Every structure is written in C-alpha cells, then in structure tokens.
C-alpha cells in the first residue's frame, strides 16, 4: 500500500442556522465541533472561506477544521477555497458527513467513491475535480431501512430519536479517539481501529445483557 499523507483539513458538513443544528444532516458538524473542543481550537467565521474555520497545531503541524456556512449543496465552495489557499491536496482532506446507506450506530471510513445522492459530497467532488478525498460516513439510516414512512429530505432535516442520537454520539467518540492516527498519516490503522471498535459496540447493543431476556408469560 502506498504511503498515506497526514490529514490537514477536516470538514464537517452541515446546513447553517440554529434550526438545523440538531438535525441528522448536520452529523458531520457534530464531529468537527467535538474535535475542535478536544483540541482547544476556536472557530472563527471567515467570509472568504465561506465557513467557520479553526486552526490548531498538532505535533507542530497546522490542522484546519472547517464547517461550511453555505447550504449543503454548495459545500464545495468552502472546501475548495480553504484547500486552494493553504495548498491542501484532496487526499489530505477528511470530510465527515451523514450517511443514509449506513445505519445509526455504524460508521465507515473510505477514500473516494460515489456520492450516494449526498449533495454536499457531490459539490465537493465537482469543485475539487476529483472524488478522491477521505470520508467519515456517519450512519443515520434511511427512512425505508428504519421502517419509516417519511421522505428522505424530511428525514435528514429532522433530529434523530434519542436512541439513534446516542448511537451516533458513540460512533463520533470512537472517531475522535482515532483521529490522531489520521493526523499522523496512519489512516489505514485508524480505519481498522474505527471499524473494529464500531462493530464491537454494535454487536454489544444487539446482545441483551444477562437477565434482560423477555418473559413469555
């Protein structure tokens, strides 16, 4: 496997405004907000970069954390502006986003691939001219897979149930714990650890604790 570059820009996809803060579509921003807090970084609105941007030194290197303040379908405008100005290559970018094709309580990391109808990813790929950036796919589930009679647009713009919120938060915590590896360029190791820990937590939730089995009487 070719050597992987350290991540220099982490993007949390979201819609701007308080009415969207707790909605499923803002799951990527939940991660970047938590990351900035962990690292002691402060966001500042930067109109030239079309978003809220934080800079922090990690092991002597600059890490940029971005939350676009355009709407989702124009996310690429902010990503391109930051990447171009600071000379950050696509394979040095991690985009955290909500993922309909992954259930709540699951999280997948991958590089490149399709956009699965996600307008934020679609615009970033178009603006960068390549899909070959890293993605942290935070599972929110699809209304059909969750047995809900709800349109997709309506679904992503509403907050998850308390149970799903907790599962998403657990995944974000695992991602946060392994982010330092990505910043060192050990993305393969980080990916393996994230997937292993998420799957372990998933299986634990599917197995009732001793004494919790239902009573048939």
TrEMBL record:
SUPFAM superfamilies: Peptidyl-tRNA hydrolase-like. It is found in: Cytoplasm. It holds the Pfam family Pept_tRNA_hydro. InterPro entries: Pept_tRNA_hydro, Pept_tRNA_hydro_CS, Pept_tRNA_hydro_sf. Catalyzes the release of premature peptidyl moieties from peptidyl-tRNA molecules trapped in stalled 50S ribosomal subunits, and thus maintains levels of free tRNAs and 50S ribosomes. Hydrolyzes ribosome-free peptidyl-tRNAs (with 1 or more amino acids incorporated), which drop off the ribosome during protein synthesis, or as a result of ribosome stalling. Monomer. This is Peptidyl-tRNA hydrolase. It comes from Limnobacter litoralis.
């Amino acid at each position: 496997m070719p050597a992987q570059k350290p991540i220099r820009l982490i993007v949390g996809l979201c819609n701007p405004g308080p009415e969207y803060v707790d909605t499923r579509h803002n799951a990527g921003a939940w991660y970047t907000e938590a990351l900035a807090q962990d690292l002691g970084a402060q966001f500042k609105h930067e109109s030239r970069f079309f978003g809220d941007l934080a800079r922090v030194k990690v092991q002597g290197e600059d890490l940029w954390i971005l939350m676009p303040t355009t709407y989702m379908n124009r996310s690429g405008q902010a990503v391109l502006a930051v990447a171009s100005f600071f000379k950050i290559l696509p394979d040095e970018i991690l985009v955290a986003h909500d993922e309909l094709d992954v259930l709540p309580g699951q999280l997948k990391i991958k590089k490149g691939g399709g956009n699965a109808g996600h307008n934020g990813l679609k615009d970033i790929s178009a603006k960068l001219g390549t899909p070959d950036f890293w993605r942290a796919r935070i599972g929110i589930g699809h209304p059909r897979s969750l047995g809900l009679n709800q349109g997709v647009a309506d679904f992503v713009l509403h907050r998850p149930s308390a149970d799903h919120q907790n599962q998403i938060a657990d995944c974000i915590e695992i991602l946060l714990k392994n982010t330092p590896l990505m910043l060192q360029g050990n993305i393969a190791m980080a990916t393996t650890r994230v997937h292993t820990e998420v799957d372990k937590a998933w299986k634990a939730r599917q197995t009732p604790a001793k004494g919790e089995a239902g009573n048939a009487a």
